UniProtKB/TrEMBL annotation:
Keywords: Chaperone. Residues 330-524 form the Tubulin-folding cofactor D ARM repeats domain. It comes from Dichomitus squalens. GO terms for molecular function: beta-tubulin binding; GTPase activator activity. Residues 874-1071 form the Tubulin-folding cofactor D C-terminal domain. HEAT repeats lie at residues 345-382. Signal peptide: none annotated. PANTHER family: BETA-TUBULIN COFACTOR D, TUBULIN-SPECIFIC CHAPERONE D. GO terms for biological process: microtubule cytoskeleton organization; post-chaperonin tubulin folding pathway; tubulin complex assembly. This is ARM repeat-containing protein.
Length: 1161
């Protein structure tokens, strides 16, 4: 049984240890290795694969390592016993060498256990008899040739862990000494530990653990002061961080687990080491050293204080009952003398709370909280005062949290972490909650822009952590006065924060409050709407979760306020856009009551100098204008919509027209599109005189987004008044100008409402036709302009479909259809790649839309055949099918979808719809619609085996074959491989000749392919793909049956002529290569062999050395792999031995003559 935790994740959740038997078998294989003998290469490879397999099992259970706990002892015991056995042999000196690979594999196994479950868990299963100390120590000192090697790091690591365990045996170490050498064992243990303390790997961590255990022994504790003195000297003189990290870990462990007497006796030296380290600036630049220093001083001070909890500790329950949360005192608030070191250490910790690195701040926060937990109440409150004071360090004299300097991030984050740790320990008095909560409100909104990104997400996350801790540790009575405010701020952050982790953290804090306090209004219902998954997607959180929460009036106001005051003013434009949409959805709950007031507040943002505020205000007003226009109460709300439009006058025209204000320009145009009314189009009644200039400047803007917004604004105007004069002016001013203006013109001509007013539709159509006319030379060279023009054509036709015969003549519609068909042949390329595909996609969509529109209006048209001649219709279908089998995945997908649309389209309502019936439609439906769920036209392995069968349909054969040829010649393996294999498999099954209709034959395939090449024999772009396709078929012996037919043999001779005629004059390397391959692939055909062999000299003796070498190599491959009926041994020997790229022309000519002569004999 397994489940997937998160969609799209590779993590698998297990219910039990499913691979136990497989794991034991692999483990036993590793334990059976003889690490003292070197394996062969094959054995080593197999053994390494076993190790990788067992490592993979460890990794797959890493997130659920607890599942192994019931079996852990039986899994680990054999491993550590075998480890002990090997260590014993090394210690005795019995063996001096070992296989580095097998030792690495064997010692890697216990290391994987430690990595998987932690050293504290695994070392419990290590052997710990008295004799083991001598074994481990001797192995470490006697087998240096093995232990000190780089590859044996895992062996050293496990050995040091084992030594740290057996070092704790409750017997005096002097018992292991020989007479006259008392203390030798202790010296050896200490020496081993110190020798690895300066390493950079895991052996340093194990050595630090060994030394800490060693110095905590009663019989060796006397050595610790000397170690402290050595440590103080080291941290003050060295610049290498590795030994300092090691010794700090030793000191931290002793300070944490050593006896109280030991710590108190050495407290001055502990703190002196930390003070000396602080003076070494080169070491203090290391994050890990700073973190360990903070841990050290905090642990030392904690050990100087009595181990008593000084506050009320809350009992966790699911829901609180009336009358309190059930907290009980666990210790009396006794007074005692606070050690004088406390003050200086706390000062260090407060500085560390402002450190640049998170790990240091977090260690300091935990240290502050743990010390406060042991202090008397008055002292603990003073510590809290100091922590809260950190929030105000950078806050003096600022207007809002957004004016904070970026350096405030670390300070606020450290303060939040400290508050969270103190809150978890119930160190926050109820009377201080109000002050804390006020700072947390600000911390939850900490989002400061810095360059192209923002800082503050860690502050907001830590603030959520504080609130989560409050729910777990604070009493209900203390939280009750703040419950509603807390509920509102948490819901707001859950729905509207920019980052996923913050939204989820706030949701978790809200859930904790609901589960433990039952103070939040509608808690369960709101939690259901803002759970972990609901807030995981930003759009869902803003547009679904937030409006659902706003159904509860307690939360509605705070959500609207946050959107207006924060989100619409956010530095990220995407946040402003989605915030405006969310504001609209929330206000639509009661649009008449909420909309006008919110729109009034949003309009005030337009007066603020900040560009982000203006943009956010325009976006919100645009959404409100749309909401008012589409509301059932639109007549009542029309005055409000006019007020919204009037607000545009407060934005200076110079701001909108600025070249750097594209966002504001687009938003202003969108506001015009949604807020314009008939009165505003009349000069006498207009409240925004400059709106026409806004639209004009938007149409001339270089940004596609601004152009699109301006086009939508003009489209809205076209629904109110006749824009014929505007259309003519735009055509006159824009046509033939710079590409951005052409793109804008092409876009705007398609979106005007020609159904309400004619707007000079024929002039617009002719302008679009001129723009895409590549034959006369008047067309635009800009691919985006052509794409926009093709996009506009079906929009115009669909717009005027109700009065098509009045506005457009059949001839003009036919011209549009011809233009779209011509667009399917646009293969323009530039530095961006195949940009012509944009045009082809637009034409595919346009032709499909044309057919749909004309078919739907067929009954009202006087003659459908004049508007959509059947031949053009079938040309369109063939063109779409060609794109559906071409090389680009996205083009195939769109073309395939549009083809299926045509395939399922009902026939036109005319007396005789047969001419417009798709040829072979039954076969097509069997091929592409028989499966319940289509895999997708972009998947080559699915589409090409079906597409090649369309070659049987004669009407669309040429177009489909042309598309397949282009796909077969692509360099993209995911397309080229499936199309060639499908074509070969299909071609091997078809007959040489066929007489029945709609049945392709091999002769026709060869003739059609050759015909494509011969029509444009001088164009490499046409000939090369065809020859590459023919090569694929020749290599697969598809044409070996073709000479049986006289016309088929003639076709092959024509192919031979194509690849040999003027071959020496060809300059294109790709054409030379495919022609050479075609010639060589024709040699195995007996009927052509005599004609082919003499022509080999053209390529074997070519002027380019690379061509000669490639020809020899390919000829050798064909001769050695195919049956040619020629004795080729000598030829193959010549091909292999000759240096074909040599500059010695005489030698090359001689080799060519010998090869051709031997093959002709």
């Amino acid at each position: 049984m397994d489940t997937t935790v998160d969609p799209g994740s590779d993590f698998r959740a297990y219910a039990r240890f499913e691979n136990k038997d497989e794991f034991i078998a692999l483990r036993d294989q590793i334990l059976a290795l003889d690490i003292y003998t070197e394996p062969s290469q094959e054995q080593g490879s197999a053994e390494w694969n076993v190790y990788k397999k067992i490592n993979l099992i460890f990794d797959s259970y890493q997130e659920q390592s607890y599942l192994w706990d019931p079996y852990l002892e039986s899994l680990v015991r054999p491993v550590v016993e075998k480890f002990k056995a090997h260590a014993k042999r090394f210690a005795s000196g019995e063996v001096k060498t070992a296989s580095f690979l097998r030792l690495q594999i064997f010692s890697g196994l216990p290391y994987l256990f430690v990595k998987f479950r932690g050293y504290k868990t695994i070392t419990k299963f290590f052997p710990h008899e008295i004799a083991d100390l001598t074994i481990a120590l001797d192995c470490m000192t006697n087998a240096e040739d093995i232990v000190d090697q780089n590859y044996s790091w895992s062996f050293r690591y496990i050995l040091l862990l084992w030594l740290s365990l057996v070092c704790m045996i409750p017997f005096d170490l002097e018992q292991f000494d020989e007479a006259g050498s008392e203390g030798k064992t202790a010296v050896r243990v200490e020496a081993v530990g110190k020798s690895f303390l300066a390493k950079a790997g895991l052996d340093r961590e194990a050595a630090a653990l060994l030394l800490s255990k060693f110095y905590m022994r009663k019989d060796t504790a006397s050595k610790f002061p000397d170690f402290l003195s050595w440590s103080i000297e080291t941290v003050g003189s060295v610049v290498d961080p590795f030994p300092v990290i090691g010794l700090l870990r030793v000191l931290c462990e002793v300070a944490k687990l050593g006896s109280t007497d030991q710590v108190q006796t050495c407290k001055e030296k502990f703190l002196q080491a930390a003070s000396t380290l602080q003076g070494n600036t080169s070491l203090m630049g290391n994050t890990l050293i700073r973190q360990l220093r903070i841990k050290l001083i905090a642990r030392v001070v904690i050990r100087l204080l009595p181990a008593r909890t000084r506050r009320l500790r809350a009992k966790g329950r699911a829901l609180a009952m009336e009358g309190g949360f059930g907290a009980e005192a666990v210790a009396n608030d006794d007074y005692f003398d606070v050690p004088e070191e406390i003050e200086s250490v706390l000062e260090d910790l407060f500085k560390a709370l402002r450190d640049k690195d998170t790990v240091v701040r977090y260690s300091a926060a935990k240290g502050v909280a743990r010390i406060s937990e042991r202090l008397p109440t008055d002292f603990a409150e003073q510590v809290l005062d100091q922590v809260l004071h950190l929030f105000s360090l950078h806050s003096a004299g600022i207007a809002s949290i957004y004016d904070l300097p970026s350096i405030a991030e670390a300070t606020w984050h450290g303060a939040c972490l400290a508050c969270a740790e103190m809150t978890r320990r119930a160190l926050i008095p109820d009377e201080r909650l109000s002050e804390l909560v006020q700072w947390l409100y600000k911390a939850l909104l900490f989002d400061i822009r810095k360059g192209a990104h923002s800082i503050g997400s860690n502050v907001r996350d830590a603030a959520s952590y504080v609130l989560w801790s409050l729910a777990r540790a604070q009493g209900v009575d203390g939280l009750r006065p703040h419950a509603l405010e807390l509920a509102r701020i948490l819901v707001t952050v859950s729905c509207f924060d920019r980052e996923i982790p913050i939204r989820r953290a706030a949701s978790a804090a809200y859930q904790e409050f609901v589960g433990r306090t039952n103070l939040f209004p509608h808690g369960i219902d709101v939690l259901r709407k803002t759970d972990f998954y609901a807030v995981g997607v930003r759009r869902n959180a803003f547009t679904v979760a937030a409006p659902e929460v706003a159904e509860h009036e307690e939360y509605r106001g705070c959500l609207i306020d946050h959107l207006l005051n924060v989100t619409l003013r956010h530095w990220d434009p995407a946040m402003r856009e989605i915030g405006a949409q969310s504001l609209r959805y929330i206000c639509e709950l009661d649009l008449a009551a909420l909309g006008p007031e919110a729109a009034k507040r949003a309009s005030q943002l337009l007066t603020i100098p900040d560009d982000a505020d203006v943009h956010g205000g325009l976006l919100a007003l645009t959404e409100f204008a749309l909401a008012f226009r589409n509301s059932p109460q639109h007549e009542q709300l029309e005055p409000e919509r006019r007020k919204i439009f009037t607000a545009l006058s407060t934005v200076p025209l110079t701001t909108i027209q600025s070249s750097r204000q594209e966002l504001i320009a687009a938003a202003a145009c969108n506001l015009i599109a949604s807020g314009i009314s008939f009165a505003e189009t009349q000069h006498a009644q207009a409240t925004v005189p400059h709106w026409r200039q806004v639209v004009d400047s938007g149409l001339k803007n270089k940004s596609a987004a601004v152009q699109e917004a301006a086009a939508s604004a003009l489209a809205a105007v076209s629904r109110l008044v006749d824009c014929s004069a505007v259309v003519n002016r735009l055509i006159r001013e824009f046509e033939g100008k710079i590409p951005p203006m052409l793109q804008s013109l092409a876009r705007v001509l398609g979106v005007l409402d020609y159904a309400t007013f004619p707007h000079g539709v024929q002039d617009a159509v002719r302008c679009l036709l001129r723009m895409v006319d590549r034959k006369s030379g008047s067309g635009s060279t800009n691919v985006e302009a052509r794409r926009n023009a093709f996009d506009s054509m079906p929009l115009i036709l669909n717009n005027i479909s109700g009065k098509l015969e009045e506005e457009l003549s059949p001839e003009l519609v036919n011209e549009l259809e011809d233009a779209l068909l011509d667009g399917l042949t646009d293969y323009t390329s530039d530095e961006r790649g195949d940009v012509g595909s944009w045009v082809r996609i637009s034409c595919v969509k346009g032709l499909t839309s044309f057919v749909q529109t004309l078919f739907s209006r067929a009954g009202s048209l006087p003659d459908l055949a004049s508007y959509l001649p059947p031949e053009k219709y079938h040309d369109a279908v063939g063109g779409i099918l060609k794109q559906a089998v071409e090389r680009l995945d996205n083009v195939r997908q769109i073309a395939g979808e549009n083809f299926l649309t045509l395939l399922l389209l009902p026939p036109p309502a005319v007396p005789n719809p047969a001419p417009w019936k798709l040829r072979g439609d039954v076969r097509m439906k069997e091929l592409f619609l028989s499966e319940q769920e289509s895999v997708g036209w972009n998947v080559g392995s699915w589409v090409f085996p079906r597409a090649v069968q369309l070659l049987d349909i004669e009407r669309y054969r040429d177009q489909v074959l042309a598309g397949i040829v282009l796909s077969a010649s692509t360099k993209t393996d995911s397309t080229q491989r499936p199309v060639t294999s499908a074509l070969v498999a299909w071609a091997l099954q078809i007959p040489v000749t066929a007489s029945e209709p709609d049945r392709y034959d091999l002769r026709g395939l060869a003739q059609d392919l050759l015909g494509q090449a011969l029509t444009k024999a001088s164009s490499n772009n046409v000939v090369v793909p065809v020859l590459q396709t023919l090569n694929v078929l020749l290599e697969a012996d598809v044409f070996e049956r073709l000479p049986q037919d006289p016309r088929g043999l003639t076709t092959l001779r024509s192919l031979l002529s194509l690849v040999t005629k003027n071959a020496s004059k060809l300059k294109n390397p790709q054409r030379i290569n495919v022609s050479m391959r075609c010639l060589i692939n024709l040699i195995p055909i007996p009927e052509l062999q005599k004609d082919c062999i003499p022509q080999l000299s053209t390529y074997l003796g070519h002027q380019y050395p690379r061509v000669r070498a490639d020809t020899a190599e390919y000829l050798y491959t064909v001769l050695s792999s195919k049956e040619t009926g020629i004795q080729t041994d000598e030829v193959e020997e010549i091909l292999l031995e000759t240096e074909w790229s040599s500059a010695n022309s005489t030698m090359v000519e001689e080799a060519v003559g010998r090869c051709v002569g031997l093959m002709s004999a």
